Amino acid sequence: MQYVAVVSSIGKPLMPCHPARARQLVRGGQAIRRFDRGLFYIQLLVREAGDTQPIVVGIDPGAKREALTVKSAKRTLLNIQTEAVDWVKDAEETSTTMRRARRHRKTPYRACRPLHNNHKPLLLPSIKARWQWKLRVCRWLSRYYPIDRFMVEDVKAVTHRGHHSNWNKLFSAIQCGKNWFYDQLGRIAPVETVQGFETAQERERLGLKKSTDKLSDKFEAHCVDSWTLAHMRIGGHPIPDNKAILYLVPLRFHRRQLHVLQPAKGNLRKRYGGTLSMGFKRGSWVKHPKYGVRYVGGASNGRISLHTLDTGKRLCQNAKPEDLTFLCTASWRTRKGNAVSSAA
Q1: Structurally, how many domains does the chain consist of?
Q2: Residues 79, 198: one domain?
Q3: Quick one: 140 and 240 in the same domain?
Q4: pTM of structure
Q5: Are 67 and 226 in contact (CB under 8 A)?
Q6: Around Cβ 282, how many Cβ atoms within 10 Å?
Q7: In terms of domains, do 24 and 76 share one?
């Protein structure tokens, strides 16, 4: 059963409540319904301090899919599976190729600058974007749950001596990325790391099975590890009581690419990229009279394109800005999965 997140009248996260209790508070005028980018919660209308219990978030990083579980000692509050940000490396290679090509033409370009921050730890854009995505989700969760600790499965790689210097350089970037993530995450709540074999041992001790299909939407694919991580710290029920999953897919924005890479007929480059569409920030959730709740895509000729939240498919390109009701800004969309809520 999915418990409902609760915040006080001043926005302080409180302990989640049973759905029946949430409906009772809303009917009695003591709370109002709220939604935030796929998460339903209620906000109390009276000032209540409220005692909170320890809540732990288990984080299982991955190359293609990642999982987070919000858990207390009594129940599993929320399971999240996300798709990793894996397009930054290719985008940086394309940007570098185009910049180098401009230097062989009579095109204005910035002078080649030396690297002034070479004394700082190496943090590649592709690696930083991956950890920033996880940090963004954790900050979002901290707004609605009184998180006491984060349990993260530590990422490790084998280093080599001698002629494997390039491998070691790549690993150092991963190491710097996770250290940056731990530092930023520690500003929200204390962080505790767990080795991968420790997670596997605890999962086997509890008798939980893990799926070999890494791209599956099932609880056993990734959320079983994030649940195990949270259970290692908070304890409680040894079998997952809530297998419902909230799926988040990060949106890709072309912030600095304002035109297409290749010119069209007449040596003109069509406009492309940016983050604003007729006054709406791209990715924002809006409500349309015909299409319902969708998110904002690009804009052309004074009209806006609308996309579905589950698949990202474009529904139209002619939505009028005055017909849209703004709901919230967002950098992700929600995706439907095959998992359903079940009680063990």
Answers
A1: 3
A2: yes
A3: yes
A4: 0.87
A5: yes
A6: 24
A7: no
